[in-house]
Design brief:
10 helices; single chain; seven-stranded mixed sheet; alpha/beta
Length: 308
């Protein structure tokens, strides 16, 4: 053996500090015989004596003083390395940039960021809210690592990965006669002023799908671009609507009543990233947390209580 390993450096230094085999074993929380064998193996392999035994105490051999000085330098550098690793584990000196569609951002993104902050307390987080037509430039110009969308992006330069499927639900203002029902049909909804999103928009097309599947074409009394707008208009008594359940995933939403649709209708959340780009571990954790929080929202029954 001509070279010291890091383990041997650690053991030799422990013996130097403790002065005894048992003391070094206590420092490293290992057995004394193991320490003794490793010291002997190290000295035999190097062909030099590292310690002198004086009355049961190990002291650096005269010829090894220069080695022990270097061992201290190695140890200090390892301490610095471990400190740098510890800082990275907390997210220090790193900015995580990601984006979300408005429908997912309102409630789900806040829960994801809470989880990120618990795991990486020093991580800088930059959250953007994007329309689907803004997503491609955001990813290709590497303004952020990943975007969580309610529609996939059809472009070979990016990769869209489904992460969770959710329900499309009916919403109406408090006191509305449809709130008397435990579940609402799309045929019920089109009898009232209907608020929606332009069907030419990918999100609007998803919301319109259950009507089109039933051979219906809802006439919008008014339209909004984003889920938050639809929710606000309904909450103010201006009509009824369908919406993805992630947009109304809060436990209490005063002024709004949520009901499941009689007709099954779903929406998929997607993780979209630049093709070929390796995500940082922080971005990978973000996607994992979105998948978890979306699934929890999907499993949680947040339907407002219907009259008995």
């Amino acid at each position: 053996m001509k070279e010291l390993t890091l383990r041997q450096v650690e053991v030799v230094r422990a013996v130097m500090i403790a002065g005894t085999i048992q003391g070094a074993a206590n420092l490293l929380n290992v057995s004394a015989p193991g320490i003794s064998r490793l010291i002997k193996h190290t000295e035999d392999g190097l062909g030099i004596r590292l310690f002198e035994r004086r009355a049961g105490v190990f002291v650096p051999a005269q010829e090894a003083h220069s080695i022990f000085a270097m061992l201290e330098q190695v140890h200090r550098r390892m301490d610095n390395l471990n400190a740098a690793v510890g800082a990275l584990q907390k997210g220090h000196d790193f900015t995580l940039s990601f984006a979300s569609a408005p429908s997912i951002a309102q409630f789900i993104a806040a829960r994801v960021i809470t989880g990120l902050r618990q795991r990486f307390p020093d991580l800088d987080i930059d959250l953007d809210i994007l329309k689907i037509e803004e997503t491609l430039d955001y990813l290709l110009l590497e303004e952020g690592e990943v975007v969580i969308m309610s529609s996939p992006l059809d472009n070979p330069a990016v990769e869209s990965i489904p992460i969770c499927e959710g329900r499309i639900v009916a919403i109406m203002p408090e006191g509305h006669e449809l709130a008397e029902k435990s579940a609402v049909s799309i045929r019920d909804l089109i009898r009232y002023p209907f608020i929606g999103v332009d069907p030419d928009d990918p999100y609007g097309r998803t919301l319109a799908r259950p009507f089109l599947d039933a051979g219906l074409s809802p006439r919008h009394a008014m339209r909004g671009r984003f889920a938050q707008t639809i929710v606000s208009l309904v909450r103010h008594g201006l009509g009824v609507a369908v919406i993805d359940e992630f947009s109304v995933a809060e436990v209490y939403m005063p002024g709004l009543v949520r009901r499941p649709l009689v007709e099954p209708a779903v929406i998929t959340a997607w993780s979209v990233q630049k093709r070929g780009r390796q995500l940082s571990s922080f971005a990978e954790q973000t996607v994992h947390l979105f998948r978890r929080e979306l699934a929890k929202a999907r499993a949680r029954e947040t339907w407002d209580r219907a009259p008995d």
